[in-house]
Write a structure and sequence with these properties.
By secondary structure, the protein is α+β, with helices and mostly antiparallel strands. The chain is 33% helix and 19% strand. InterPro entries: Transglutaminase-like_Cys_pept.
Length: 227
């Protein structure tokens, strides 16, 4: 069965699950944890405009309707036990459904002369970019505001570029990552944060300030790894 069909069935199951009372939904969450506690450092400090990711630019050229909204109202989702459970369920669903594979092995991008290729993992395989796109789409389909879902470039402790999804909430900037099941506040994941999409216009990218962290290299900030 194609990944799209499996995802549709999984989404239907999720919607049925979250039509239950909040207490029942929260009890069945993939992570039976308390809501994150908001702290001053739980929200990333945003700097000036940064260069857009080439993967996003190519994605928009291939699927222009995905990038047509240029005036969004920035919001932070009010996290409840129900929405927290839903966020964890969607994160776990995407991480489980997709088989990790690098862009070059998947698409042969080196022969195409491009550093990254972002697309929906409809064939059931993908790297960090594709996980992020899928999670973003599932959350939007579940009713989450698009302006609260921001693609974010980070550098791993090994020095590799990596893409994660930032979800802006009243409890902090939460990170959905394909290499870990647990959703953490941005400053708890151990990455060096480089830039992310603007909440007002996803075609605009903004730098992320972190005084205690070393500046990201230009190579790492312009491409992401095959993780």
């Amino acid at each position: 069965m194609r990944i799209r069909a499996r995802l549709i069935l999984s989404i239907v199951a999720l919607l049925a699950h979250f039509s239950m009372p909040i207490s029942s939904a929260a009890a069945g969450a993939t992570q039976a944890e308390r809501l994150p506690v908001a702290e001053p450092a739980a929200f990333a400090r945003i700097g000036g405009q940064a260069r857009p990711m080439i993967g996003w630019t190519l994605f928009c050229q291939a699927q222009p309707l995905e990038c047509s909204e240029t005036r969004l109202a920035p919001v932070a989702v009010i996290l409840t036990p129900d929405s927290w459970a839903e966020l964890n369920a969607i994160n776990a669903l995407a991480n489980k459904q997709i088989k990790p594979i690098g862009d070059d092995d998947h698409y042969g991008i080196s022969k195409m002369g491009i550093p990254n290729w972002w697309t929906y993992p409809d064939d059931g395989s993908g790297n960090c970019n594709d996980y992020v796109l899928l999670k973003r789409r599932l959350l939007i389909e579940a009713g989450w505001p698009k302006s609260a879902l921001l693609m974010t470039v980070v550098v791993t402790p090994e020095g590799e570029g990596h893409l994660v999804l930032t979800v802006r909430t009243d409890r902090g900037d939460l990170i959905l990552d394909n290499v870990r099941e647990k959703i953490l506040v941005w400053n708890k994941v151990g990455y060096r944060f480089v830039k992310r999409q603007s909440a007002a216009n996803h075609n605009v990218w903004l730098s992320i300030e972190a005084d205690e962290l070393a500046p990201a290299t230009s190579a790492a900030s312009s491409r992401v790894s095959s993780r």
